[in-house]
Amino acid sequence: MMRKAGAKRVSGEDRTRIPWSNIPKPSLERLAQYHQIAIRAGEDGNENLSSVSLSEILGVDETLVRKDMASVGIVGKPRVGYSTGQIINKLEEILGLSQHTDAVLIGCGGIGSALLRYPGFRKYGLRISAAFDADFAKVNQRVGDYVILPMEKCRSVINTFRVKVAILAVPADAAQEMADWLVRRGVQAIWNFAPIHLRVPAGIVVRNENLALGLADLIHHLRRNNMEKEDGARTR
Amino acid sequence: MMRKAGAKRVSGEDRTRIPWSNIPKPSLERLAQYHQIAIRAGEDGNENLSSVSLSEILGVDETLVRKDMASVGIVGKPRVGYSTGQIINKLEEILGLSQHTDAVLIGCGGIGSALLRYPGFRKYGLRISAAFDADFAKVNQRVGDYVILPMEKCRSVINTFRVKVAILAVPADAAQEMADWLVRRGVQAIWNFAPIHLRVPAGIVVRNENLALGLADLIHHLRRNNMEKEDGARTR
DNA sequence: ATTATATCGTGAAATGTATCACGATATAAA
DNA sequence: TTTATATCGTGATACATTTCACGATATAAT
Fold first, then answer.
1. Considering the domain boundaries, does residue A8 fall inside one?
2. One domain, residues A58 and A108
3. What confidence score (pLDDT) does residue B195 get?
4. Domain check: are A106 and A205 in the same one?
5. What 3-state class would DSSP assign to B34?
6. Are residues B73 and B134 in the same domain?
7. Length A78 CA → D30 C1' (Å)
8. SS3 of residue B142 by DSSP
9. Residue B124 has what pLDDT?
10. Is the model's pLDDT at A14 over the cut of 70?
């Protein structure tokens, strides 16, 4: 023990310099929500936000909010709260929203087209370099600001723009094959909108944006809620 | 204490009968994924699934899979695994995917239109009764199988079909007002696709399908991943 | 200048979730 | 039939997250 610092130039030793490297998932979700709330608060002219108001809006404990803030280096002032601007800036840095990320979009069906037209991404630093579809009937059609390209061109776009992120919005039965292809082309992260779980090599990041899961969660809560009402009010 | 069982016909006393009433969020997410994997496995002709294969696909501990299964009453056979069919049936029951849920969709812009055309919902028991938009230019246009209706008609549709769920796909600055309106009309659950956190009265369920959050999560993992590579391989 | 108070910051305790270790059991092999 | 083994089931343990309790501090009021 007591390994001498600096040996082998291991930069991961001083954990302080990489505060965003190991944020637990629940915290990350809350941080994204603080960001949204801070933006709205800023638009309403609030220069400060207290942990109490954040906790009330989100329905979590106020201490938890302060712990979250501390964990990413946002400091507040007693009796004032946190600066709205600092929350926004720091969280955009932490969440990676301030730097541009290039992505290709694969599959221009319902979801894919909607994502192409979604104005929110630019604001959050995502730049869709190009959109592709394997269906020749769709190629050359316009969707929003984009012209759909044939899959053959995808490889060169990935190389040219050094694209690391792919948005996968193809039908479920084509998703795995397409994911394999993208990984072979050097894509490192896949935002998957197809309702299946992708198998990818270690080191590739996949985020499943599973709408059916969201639906299941919603219905689960709704039923739970109704059941509590039927049971009559118990504790809280 | 030691309240006599059966007093006041309190059905919530024997916790055994309502296994789905208090499932932790992480488990719920895994359950939805087991469901998807089981469906694919079934299509591939696999009649059984072991906790080991599920755990490898999802990258979680095998014990955790067994605990999850036990928690919802799915029982497996030693040396065989869990029945694919039982997983699917039980989870559809637990997740509420087998019974129909009526919903109205508000806002037929990019996301809203995509959701209307999304074929997956029917399979998962969601029936969109009607779609509405406040923009008169959009009213009467067709999107998929739907004709967009004016907001004036929304109230009567909610009453007629006793709709409890609303899918909210309006611009961020209109979302809160619309949510308030829906709650006054009796909607109990809101599936919110607008990138803001809604304030709702206690007892109303909101699920935020926050695409920007998904993006933030993806980018966070990507950066973390790259950083680990630069640091050289440490433990795992 | 002094006091009051809203708010932050944080170690300690409580709670919740995941992993470990190991016994039980159904099928396959000998 | 007996033995071997893959797999389930679960109590005990370890780890992670949240809540509690309380001290510190900046602003506002007196």
1. no
2. no
3. 80
4. yes
5. helix
6. no
7. 21
8. strand
9. 81
10. no
What percent of chain B stands above pLDDT 90? 58
Q: How far is the CA of B143 from the C1' of C14 (A)?
A: 52
| Domain, as residue range, for A159 | 101-213
User: How far apart, in Å, are the Cα atoms of B84 and each of A45, A166, B41, B228?
Assistant: 55, 31, 7, 38
Query: pLDDT tens for residues B9-61?
Result: 333 333 334 455 678 989 999 999 999 999 999 999 999 999 999 999 999 99
Residue B90 has pLDDT above 60, yes or no: yes
Say yes or no: Cβ of A59 under 7 A from any atom of strand D.
no
Which residue's entry shows tokens 């955790």? B64
**Protein CA A232 to sugar C1' C16 (Å):** 26
**Is B8 a member of any domain?**
no
B230 within a domain of the structure (yes/no): no
Reduced to 3 states (helix: H, G, I; strand: E, B; else coil), residue B71 is helix
Using the CB atom, is residue B70 less than 7 Å from strand D? yes
DSSP structure string for A49-101:
E-HHHHHHHHTS-HHHHHHHHHHTT---BTTTBEEHHHHHHHHHHHHT-SS-E
Q: Are B94 and B125 in contact (CB under 8 A)?
A: no
CA–CA min distance A152, chain B (Å): 26
The pLDDT of residue B234 is: 43
- Residue B224 forms part of a structural domain: no
pLDDT tens digits, A125-173: 899 999 999 999 999 999 989 999 999 999 999 999 999 999 999 998 8
Same domain, B107 and B183: yes
Q: What are the C-alpha distances in Å from A131 to residues A100, B110, B175?
A: 17, 16, 29
Q: What is the pTM of this model?
A: 0.84
Q: How far is CA B97 from CA A17, A167, A214, A224, A229, in A?
A: 45, 26, 11, 15, 22
Whether the per-residue pLDDT at A26 is higher than 50: the answer is: yes
Q: Determine which helix (DSSP H) or strand (DSSP E) holds B110, and give its type and residue range.
A: helix B110-117
pLDDT band at A222 (very low <50, low <70, confident <90, very high): confident
Cα angle B75-B78-B63, degrees, rounded to a multiple of 5: 70
Claim to verify: residue A128 and residue A180 sit in the same structural domain:
yes
Q: Are residues A139 and A178 in the same domain?
A: yes
Q: Which nucleotides of D are covered by protein (CB under 7 A)?
A: 5-11, 16-21, 24-28
